[in-house]
């Protein structure tokens, strides 16, 4: 990655600039965090046109609400931005009824974490993006946002055991897909 002179700002300095309404600070914030936030949105929505719209809407919210942000140390800005994008993605999924449970899928086997060692990141991201929306959402909230099933259930308006079940099913689907991938690529 190339290093731009603007990227030498600390997060705290960047917060001050954006808080002061500095357009260079706003541009720096966008350039620094847009790739990360695009990846977060894609984890929830898949690679769709909705990701671009969500990102644009989220950055509008960020700049409109920046006065309410309180810097709490290194990483707090990224965490705040991520929360906005996750909440916006969940709103889209709810609005489009993409969080409805998937029926008629086999019961998951024993709870096993998918073996992801030496699996290319792009391949794993693709596998996660192909999970059914409900499974992918619960998986992302549990694994990446480190939420508990109780909190996921409250956030999504589902039962706690439904959250746990969807996570198990997501893991089972990922495990199956990873095994198939390894069978093809490890023998190639």
Description:
The protein is mainly α and 188 residues long. It contains eight helices and no strands. Residues 1-6 and 102-106 have low confidence and may be disordered.
Short description:
This protein is mainly alpha-helical. It has eight helices and no strands.
Structural class of the secondary elements?
Answer: mainly alpha
User: Any idea what the CATH superfamily of the largest domain is called?
Assistant: RNA polymerase sigma factor, region 2, helix turn helix motif
Which residues sit in consecutive blocks of at least 5 with pLDDT less than 50? 1-6, 102-106
Q: What share of the residues does DSSP label as strand, in percent?
A: under 5%
Give the beta-strand count: 0
Question: According to CATH, what is the class of the largest domain?
Answer: Mainly Alpha
Any idea how many domains?
Answer: 2
Helix content class: 55-70%
SSE pattern: HHHHHHHH
Assembly classification: single chain
Radius of gyration: 19 Å
- What's the tally of helices? 8
| Mean residue pLDDT | 85
CA-based shape? globular
Task: Please give the structural blueprint.
Blueprint: H1 11-19, H2 23-45, H3 49-65, H4 76-95, H5 121-129, H6 133-143, H7 149-156, H8 160-186
What features would you highlight for this structure?
2 domains, mainly alpha, Rna Polymerase Sigma Factor, Chain: A, Arc Repressor Mutant, subunit A, disordered N terminus, 188 residues
């Amino acid at each position: 990655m190339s290093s731009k002179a603007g990227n030498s700002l600390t997060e705290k300095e960047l917060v001050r600039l954006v808080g002061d309404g500095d357009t260079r600070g706003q541009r720096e914030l966008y350039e620094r965090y847009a790739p990360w936030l695009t990846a977060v949105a894609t984890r929830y929505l898949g690679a769709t046109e909705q990701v671009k719209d969500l990102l644009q809407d989220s950055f509008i919210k960020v700049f409109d609400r920046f006065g309410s942000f309180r810097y709490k140390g290194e990483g707090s800005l990224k965490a705040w931005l991520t929360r906005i994008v996750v909440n916006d993605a969940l709103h889209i999924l709810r609005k489009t009824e993409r969080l409805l449970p998937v029926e008629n899928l086999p019961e998951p086997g024993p709870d096993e974490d998918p073996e992801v060692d030496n699996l290319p990141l792009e391949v794993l991201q693709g596998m996660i993006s192909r999970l059914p929306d409900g499974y992918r959402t619960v998986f992302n909230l549990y694994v990446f946002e480190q939420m508990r099933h109780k909190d996921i259930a409250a956030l999504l308006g589902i039962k706690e055991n439904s959250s746990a079940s969807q996570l198990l099913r997501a893991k089972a689907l990922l495990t199956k897909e990873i095994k198939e991938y390894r069978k093809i690529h490890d023998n190639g």
